[in-house]
Amino acid sequence: MNYRRDYIIIHHTGAEEKNAHQVKQYHLSKGWRDVGYNYIIERDGKVVPGRSLEIPGAHTRASGMNYKSIGIALIGNFQNHRPTERQLAALVDLVTCCQQKHNIPTTNVLLHREVPGAHTLCPGRYFPAGELRLNLTDPAHLWCVQVGAFKNKERALDFAARLRNLGINAFVVER
Ligand SMILES: [Zn+2]
Fold this sequence. Notes:
Lysozyme-like; about 25% helix; binds zinc ion; five-stranded mixed beta sheet
């Protein structure tokens, strides 16, 4: 089944995990089949792919968003402090790429707490929402960098992982 992704929802993890692996272990310990988010951004700005978009997410129950959005979580509790500058820069790149791929307007990029029906402070009071929005662009005006095209998903994931190890925030999109 294919789920159209018309929204992007921004979260903090609300905890001070070491890395994306720890977030995933926590979600698996709750009996979930994978981490609930589609992407996790670590403190150093590294983007770690999470749950496949081929199945519903497990991050925003309100308004049925698990079925129609991409969930991105930044590690940290932003009720207590700001995200790192590297996290914010990586978030802009990742959101921009997702907007392009799924044709999502900036008005549909929401904080978790902005989703109708959500009762949460997520992603925390120190998350700089205004700054993020200033840096986003509607999909029609983007220039994307393509570095490879693969028939095999594993090879594409491996190639993206190698680029991330070089400090380039590459991620895989399906076309
Ligand atoms: Zn959230």
